[in-house]
Amino acid sequence: MVAFASGGRRRSEIAAMRVEQLTVEPSIDVPDGSPLPSLSIHLGRTKTSGADHDGVVYLTGRPVNALNAWLAAARIDKGSIFRKVDRWGNLSNRPLEPSAVNAIVKQRAKMAGLEPGEFSAHGLRSGYLTEAANRGIPLPEAMEQSRHRSVQQASSYYNNATRRTGRAARLIS
């Protein structure tokens, strides 16, 4: 949930995420609803940013609640957020390996009754932009959250999501 909602984070970013990267933000007011909790995640250096660039993405609502519940249940208050769990259920201080993120995605797909071979950790990234397109979120806004630098790459997910049902396909209908 955190990987998807924070813009489709890469496996390496999720595996390396630390409590120290999180900042509690003011709650977001929602008309006719309870305020939504909000966190910022300071990504630091990523695959496409330099060491001097601190990209920030946000989590709002249920993903914040889920993350806080995990941190409380696992008694994590510093260091790696997502950690190895051994076969006896013991939590390590060591972070997950990036490859474990892919294994978890596949395991969760199977638990949901889906075909695990159709899912991967990269699907969190591409799926985020696809869902943003399906919900009509403007590409620049989605790219701010996903931290894609290439409009060409990010727009390919948008084009695939809306091509058949979009207005361009219905010029004459």
From TrEMBL:
Transmembrane segments: none annotated. One of its GO terms (molecular function) is DNA binding. InterPro entries: DNA_brk_join_enz, Integrase-like_cat_sf, Integrase_catalytic. Keywords: DNA recombination. It comes from the Bacteria. SUPFAM superfamilies: DNA breaking-rejoining enzymes. GO terms for biological process: DNA integration; DNA recombination. Residues 1-171 form the Tyr recombinase domain. The keyword Protein transport does not apply. The keyword Hydrolase does not apply. This is Integrase.
